[in-house]
Every structure is written in C-alpha cells, then in structure tokens.
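During the first year of the project, the team set up a workflow for recording each protein of interest as an amino acid sequence followed immediately by a discrete structure-token representation. This format lets reviewers and collaborators read both layers of information side by side without switching files. As required by the reporting guidelines, we include two representative entries from the current panel. The first entry is reproduced here exactly as it appears in our internal archive.
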Amino acid sequence: MMKVSTVITQFSTLFMLCICLLLNGVPSTTLANEGKIDLNTATPQQLQTLKGIGKALAKRIVQFRKEHGPFTTIQDIQKVSGIGKDTFSNLEHAVTIGTRHISDKTQ
C-alpha cells in the first residue's frame, strides 16, 4: 500500500506540470502522440527539453524546418547539422511528426 505522503507528492507533481503547461500555452499538437514532442511544431524551448538538444541545436532544428519544410520522418532530424546517430538514438523515443505535415509536404 502506498503511503499517503507519496500519493500527495505524486499528485502535487502532476498538478504543477499541468499548471506549467497551461501557463506556457503549449499547443496540443506539439505534445501529441502520448506526450511526444512534435518536431514540426515545437519551439526551441520545447526542443531543449529533449536529451542532447541545447539552445544552439534547437535553433538549428527550427531554422532547418523553415528552410526545408516539415520533417516527413523522425529520422529526417539527422539532416540537421549536429544531430548524428547517437543524438538521434537518445531522442527518437521522445519525438514525433504530425501526420498532417506529411500530407502537407506531398501536396
């Protein structure tokens, strides 16, 4: 049986996370697919929450997206300078691309 203090701590953590998301105005499409970050809509700040992505690399991802259009697969992020196989393997479980972006690019 869980201690009451453990339950309260877990509830408080979840509550604070929800408040932070509401206050920061995170679009629901960015956190689609079971909490994964959408590479095609994420802000630099959201990208920085990914393991191995700092401020400079987050800006490069957004710039790459602006210049080349949306990513069509999560593997496409490896086309961004500074993201190799190791970095990709650290973040592939935490990212997604919205399906609407794939159809947008093919039209």
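The second entry, processed by the same pipeline in the following quarter, appears below.
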Amino acid sequence: MVPKRWARRAVTRNAIKRQIYNVGERFCHHLPAAAHVVRLRTTFDRKVYISASSDHLKLAVRQELEQLFERALHHGHHQEVRA
C-alpha cells in the first residue's frame, strides 16, 4: 500500500509498488521469511516527478529502497550476532 500523501496519482503509486517488488526480490534471499513493511520517507510530488514512468522517478525510488533494504540487512545481521 502506498498512501496518497506520498504520491497523489494512482499511476505513480503503482509505479512505486512495482519498484518495491523489484528491489525486494533482489534482497529477499538475504532477509528472514516474513511479511515486511516498507515505509518510504520521500514524497513524490507531481511537480518534481512529472511522469510516473520517468527514469528520474524510478531512480529516486530505487535509491531510497536500496538504502532501506541495506539498512534492514545490516540491522538483521546485528540481531543475529547478539543472539
């Protein structure tokens, strides 16, 4: 689910969801089997990202997602080490 406050247009929200699935697939083998919640911090304003299919939007979403998944991997690794 991508809330309207992050992206007003449905086509943009759907593009963001596709990015979440694509990046998530690359990291899924390194994360524990569970339901994961992805919470983006950036809003994707229509004035900045004019087209939902623009490379600019895809790059911005992908970069934030990769940072989040890397952080999740790093955080999960520390939990395993502490146990």
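For the second entry, the following points were noted during internal review. Confidence is low (pLDDT under 50) at residues 78-83. Helices lie at 10-27, 55-82. Both points are flagged for discussion at the upcoming steering committee meeting.
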